[in-house]
Design goal:
Helix content: 55-70%
Structural class: mainly alpha
Shape: elongated
Strand content: under 5%
Number of strands: 7
Number of helices: 25
């Protein structure tokens, strides 16, 4: 129920809020500093305190209530003051009953026996500390471990871009959207849908397998060294195998440490059965350890005996820590000690119980991975789209190349730092579309419309012919533009002379740059004019196809002999309109790619 509530809450958040929440979860999971972020001291208001004490007083035996009431009248102190004194005495009694060697109440200190109990935890945690550092203090290692555990339970788990969406689908979506950000949003949405569809039980199983180690986090992070300094002992200097020699430490100075330690053993004690530990995480840890030391190893693969021995030793170490924690909680009444030395039996601490929220962490991991991979493969997707669209438009026909407006292998553009002809592909695409598709398919439809459906509509007919004429003019201008760079033209002669002199005479570079930039401005103008004419034709075809006029609808249903077969006019128009849309989108994408 708690997990479902959290997921519903997350589902109501915006993308920005969701990312902020995930960042906070990450900070909680990968916290390595020693600041007290998870313990809150609950300060009761006077009204709340009086209410609690009233109920507490009412639960006392009659004789005790009578004595406290009598003492209050005799001493002039309030009943609550005497109640607090009584409860502090009871705290002392409970501590003495549980373990009478922990403190000298009159001297208000902690004895070496207390430090020895903490030292037993310190010794037990050392082997597990290395495991914890390897897995949780390394964000990438934890993410890899989570994917490792998920893959062991699922036939197919999303670990890469193509696990979420195929390359073919990406090209299809790109054809529809044409923008990287839109494509990214689609991929993220698909990822979220896939991850939300995974069963709750899957993440619960993974979490249960990790908690025996994860719930040791606060104990691993406990500042043992600073704590032992108060008892005049330094475990970095002393041999841990020998029995340490501690001295007493002031309890008031140690209170902050005691609170942190109480939280650490409280959380670790939440694991009732450490055998729920998933051994696969130890196997993963062994692989990480082996990679860390692979330069020192002579063998390519560690023997299975070494792997099994590592897993057995770590399992035993983790179970030993949990046993030591249980024994510590049983023999060391930390809560009572803290309340006694704060002189407040109503002193309360509120603990944050760490949650892993693995589904959201998994989403966060995958979101980063696939967005990065999408960025890396974006140009590949764009190129595949462009090639697919060219093949569709020209049905496999070879495009007619330009003879002069092209890249020249004889020029080392990068080395010389000179510009090159940028829009060779987009201009060539426009030229070939006009020469092949327009001349062979669209021009005939325009003539049909002119003589038939638009014969009585002079305004629309004029618009149609104006766009058609402009497109045909663009074709001629492109052909002349390419010729302008040939050795037969004046500009061409200058260009050819300059390109051969670049390597030997760098002073010619300025003239060369000026000529290239001038030609590029002409190219952009031609492409812009071509796109305008293509869009004009497309809009006119759309107007005709969506016209509400009955006579036009009737004529659209007529069949004509087009390209060797009887075709309904509306079908032929729709096909041409789709091709015009396709080439417009393609030109736009190709132009952007050339611009970089």
């Amino acid at each position: 129920m708690e997990g479902q509530t959290f997921e519903k809450l997350v589902g109501t958040l915006s993308e920005k809020e969701r990312l902020e929440l995930l960042e906070r979860i990450n900070k909680s999971m990968f916290r390595i500093e020693e600041e007290d972020e998870t313990i809150k001291r609950k300060n009761l208001s006077q009204k709340e305190r009086d209410l609690v004490m009233e109920k507490d007083f009412g639960r006392l035996p009659f004789l005790r209530r009578f004595i406290i009431g009598l003492l209050s009248k005799l001493s002039g102190k309030s009943r609550n003051d005497h109640l607090i004194q009584y409860k502090i005495k009871m705290l002392k009694k409970n501590v003495m009953k549980t373990n009478n060697k922990l403190t000298g109440f009159e001297t208000r200190d902690l004895t070496p026996a207390f430090a020895e109990a903490v030292f037993a935890l310190y010794v037990a945690i050392m082997p597990v500390r290395e495991l914890y550092k390897r897995l949780w203090m390394n964000k990438a290692a934890f993410e890899g471990g989570l994917l490792y555990l998920l893959k062991s339970r699922l036939e197919k788990v999303q670990v890469s871009l193509e696990d979420v969406i195929s390359l073919e689908e990406l090209v299809d979506e790109y054809a529809l959207q044409g923008l990287k950000e839109k494509l990214k949003a689609i991929v993220i949405e698909k990822l979220q849908t896939k991850i939300e569809g995974l069963p709750d039980a899957l993440f619960k199983q993974v979490e249960e397998g990790l908690l025996p180690v994860y719930y040791l986090k606060e104990l691993v992070l406990f500042p043992f060294i600073s704590f032992f300094h108060m008892f005049h002992f330094n475990p970095q200097i002393e041999d841990l195998k020998d029995k340490p020699v501690f001295k007493s430490a002031p309890a008031v100075v140690a209170l902050d440490f005691m609170e942190k330690l109480y939280y650490a053993v409280y959380i670790a004690g939440k694991i009732e059965n450490p055998e729920t530990l998933d051994k696969r995480i130890l196997d993963y840890s062994f692989e990480l350890m082996n990679l860390e030391g692979e330069e020192e190893r002579e063998e390519e693969e560690p023997p299975e005996e070494e792997r099994d021995a590592y897993i057995r030793s770590m399992t035993a170490a983790i179970q030993d820590v949990h046993r030591k924690v249980a024994a510590f909680n049983h023999h060391i009444p930390l809560a009572e000690l803290i309340r006694y030395f704060t002189k407040d039996p109503y002193y309360q601490l509120v603990f944050y119980i760490p949650k892993m929220h693995l589904r959201d962490i998994y989403y966060h991991i995958m979101r980063e991975k696939i967005v990065t991979e999408l960025e890396e493969r974006y140009q590949e997707i764009r190129k595949l789209y462009i090639q697919r669209e060219i093949n569709t438009l020209f049905q496999g026909k070879q495009l007619i190349p330009f003879h002069n407006y092209r890249e020249y292998a004889s020029i080392d553009y990068k080395k010389m730092g000179v510009p090159f002809f940028v829009h060779t592909r987009s201009l060539n695409l426009l030229y070939n579309f006009i020469k092949m598709n327009y001349r062979e398919q669209i021009q005939g439809i325009i003539q049909l419309l002119q003589k038939g459906l638009l014969a009585q509509n002079r305004i629309t007919q004029d618009r149609l012919l104006r766009h058609a004429a402009a497109l045909e003019e663009v074709e001629d201008k492109i052909r002349l533009f390419d010729y302008s760079l040939s050795p037969e033209s004046e500009d061409g002669k200058s260009f050819q002379r300059l390109r051969f002199m670049l390597a030997s005479d760098p002073s010619q570079q300025r003239m060369y740059k000026t000529l290239v930039l001038q030609k590029e401005r002409t190219v952009k103008s031609l492409i812009s004019l071509g796109e305008e004419s293509l869009e004009g034709l497309r809009k006119l075809f759309e107007e005709i196809l969506t016209s509400p006029v009955d006579s036009i609808k009737e004529q659209l249903n007529n069949h004509y002999f087009i390209k060797g077969s009887s075709t309904r006019l509306s079908t032929a128009l729709q096909e041409r309109m789709d091709n015009l849309s396709r080439v417009r989108n393609l030109l736009s994408q190709l132009f952007k790619m050339e611009e970089g």
